[in-house]
Automatic annotation (TrEMBL):
Keywords: Amino-acid biosynthesis, Cytoplasm, NADP, Oxidoreductase, Proline biosynthesis. It catalyses: L-proline + NAD(+) = (S)-1-pyrroline-5-carboxylate + NADH + 2 H(+); L-proline + NADP(+) = (S)-1-pyrroline-5-carboxylate + NADPH + 2 H(+). This is Pyrroline-5-carboxylate reductase. Its EC number is 1.5.1.2. GO terms for biological process: L-proline biosynthetic process. Residues 6-91 form the Pyrroline-5-carboxylate reductase catalytic N-terminal domain. Catalyzes the reduction of 1-pyrroline-5-carboxylate (PCA) to L-proline. It comes from Haloferax volcanii (Halobacterium volcanii).
């Protein structure tokens, strides 16, 4: 069994811990200075601690903290070349981390769906079989070049918020039409979930799937005409570009370190 630790039990760290617990078969230590954060994840790990050196005693060490405290955490970690350090911090380059540890370094950008084992993640660096197995147990991941991590951060790291926004818009349209808030949210969320799973499993492109749903003179084509005539796709693209730009700005802060 691969010994794993997660340093930083905020939103992303706790989502990862919960997903690994649901997957089963993992020995995980959770580390955080906040006792409330540790209490919140105590049921999803083997041990909780505020001692970074205890978390360092693992085969794979995840550092899931804010970018501005990554360096402070790294300074407290004494890892060997036999260990793997996996960072989850927007904009922090692999090279920055490699200069501060003897361990193998992997940089990932996951998302909160790790909690339900539906995560989408981008990964770069020295991926071992152990890391691949850990990531696979909480969702899907793709291996990308370091230069692609900013756009990956925007697509899958920030992407859930964009989807939540669209789900809320569809939900409120349902409420305006007479559905209860609860019923509209269930229908909207499950529809997005099912549509996403169809894209993942079906060989057809998204455009081909749209055609499959749009019957001539039907309800769907009527709605799609509104979207095609709008700037909705431009707005979504601009949101992704803005998130990518911010990731690059964060990276610039580490360029001269």
């Amino acid at each position: 069994m691969v010994r794993t630790s997660v340093i930083g039990c905020g939103n992303m760290g706790s989502a990862l811990l919960t997903g690994l617990w649901k997957a089963g078969g993992h020995s995980v230590v959770a580390c955080d200075l906040d006792p409330d954060a540790l209490a919140a994840v105590a049921d999803y790990c083997e041990e909780t601690t505020d001692d970074v050196s205890r978390a360092a005693d693992a085969d794979v060490v995840f550092v899931a903290v804010k970018p501005d405290i990554v360096e402070a955490v790294l300074s407290e970690l004494d890892l060997s070349p036999d260990q793997t350090l996996v960072t989850i911090a927007a904009g922090v380059p692999t090279s920055f981390v490699e200069a501060r540890t003897d361990a193998r370094v992997v940089r990932i950008m996951p998302n909160l769906a790790a909690e339900t084992r539906d995560m989408a993640a981008a990964a770069t660096g020295d991926l071992t079989d152990e890391v691949r197995e850990l990531l696979s147990d909480v969702g899907e991941f793709v291996e990308v070049e370091e230069s692609q991590m900013d756009i990956a951060t925007a697509v899958n790291g920030s992407g859930p918020a964009f989807v939540f926004y669209l789900i809320e818009a569809v939900t409120q349209a349902g409420v305006a039409g007479g559905l209860s808030e609860e019923d509209a949210e269930i229908l909207a969320a499950q529809t997005f979930k099912g549509a996403a799973e169809t894209v993942v499993q079906d060989d057809r492109t998204a455009d081909e799937l749209i055609d499959a749903v749009c019957s001539p003179n039907g309800t769907t084509i009527e709605g799609m005409e509104v979207l095609w005539d709008s700037d909705a796709d431009d707005a979504v693209t601009e949101a992704v570009v803005a998130a990518e730009r911010r990731s690059k700005e964060l990276a610039e802060e580490f360029a001269d370190e």
